[in-house]
Amino acid sequence: MIGPPRGGSPEGEPGDLSGYPHVFKLELRSLPDWLMRAYLVELGGSMQPDGSVTGEGWQARLEPMEDFVIGSLRVGQVRLVWCGDDLALESIWPLVEKKLVRGGG
């Protein structure tokens, strides 16, 4: 289980995340932002005009990042900023975790 840190809220970030008791960020590699948005919609979220996804008791935003580079290999990255209330953390977050599992060695 990835397990988000509990409590806190980011300072100076766009969007109103202050109303949520749980706010955290994950850097995701090899997962296109369009696919992560689709996962969030599958979990009951609705696309917003600003590109964020909101659900009952939670909100998520995807932020582009520079590609991760190892030698000549380039891997796309995106930052997931997820915030939610206690119920969303207990009910939705485990489903998000399952979507993030990738096979491989």
Overview of the molecule:
- By secondary structure, this protein is α+β, with helices and mostly antiparallel strands.
- It has helices spanning 33-42, 86-91, 93-100, and strands at 22-29, 46-47, 53-55, 58-64, 68-70, 73-75, 77-84.
- The protein has a single domain (22-100), classed as Ribosomal Protein S8, Chain: A, domain 1 (2-Layer Sandwich).
- Strands 1-7-4-3-2 form a five-stranded antiparallel β-sheet.
- 21% of the residues are buried.
Secondary-structure-derived class: alpha+beta
Percentage of residues in strands: 25-35%
Head-to-tail CA distance between termini = 18 Å
What is the fold-level CATH name, i.e. the topology? Ribosomal Protein S8, Chain: A, domain 1
| Largest sheet, spatial ordering of strands | 1-7-4-3-2
CATH class: Alpha Beta
Envelope shape:
globular
Q: Which helices and strands appear, and what pairs or packs with what?
A:
Elements lengths: L21 E8 L3 H10 L3 E2 L5 E3 L2 E7 L3 E3 L2 E3 L1 E8 L1 H6 L1 H8 L5
Antiparallel strand pairs: 1-7, 2-3, 3-4, 4-7, 5-6
In short:
This protein has 105 residues and is α+β, with helices and mostly antiparallel strands. The protein has helices spanning 33-42, 86-91, 93-100; strands at residues 22-29, 46-47, 53-55, 58-64, 68-70, 73-75, 77-84.
